[in-house]
């Protein structure tokens, strides 16, 4: 259970933040009106999450050191995230641009990331279409696209199509397919280029069917 999912745990954090000095379990429990065992449980969880620091404090007189807790310095990491809003804000820059220029720039951005996200094949390994497409499929699977190759039996080698059964940016793609899909196409082109593939992704059909998009592959002119 995360801090965001536990209101009680956030209450413990608030008590520690408001205290002028580190608190022991009994002190925190008294301020919250809870049993010390309950507070200790939440404090241990917050320590495990890296949100709270636990240390031994030397006693002011005879006796054993006292265990105290304080909030770890830094931004509160238990709050809400909204990366979708951030993505929408960034996409709005291209939405206001010329459509052709935006598509070209987004495709090139995707190519750069595709080249960055894959490792090239060993230099002594031939860049066979099947091997390089397998590298692309591994990348797409790791990113959450749930790819499925199709058409390899027709050409006797690399697949002619890749069906993408899941989109990790689905809501954004539904709103801005003209912007998001060029990124995806460029991503595949850049990855294949980095892998030295004799094939490339020539087109991406957004929502070609209700349950998937389809990327089309073809041999490069050099191949």
From TrEMBL:
CDD domains, per the entry: HTH_ARSR
Pfam families: HTH_20 (PF12840)
Superkingdom of the source species: Bacteria
Cross-referenced InterPro entries: ArsR-like_HTH, WH-like_DNA-bd_sf, WH_DNA-bd_sf
Name this protein carries in UniProt: Helix-turn-helix domain-containing protein
Organism whose genome encodes this protein: Streptomyces tricolor
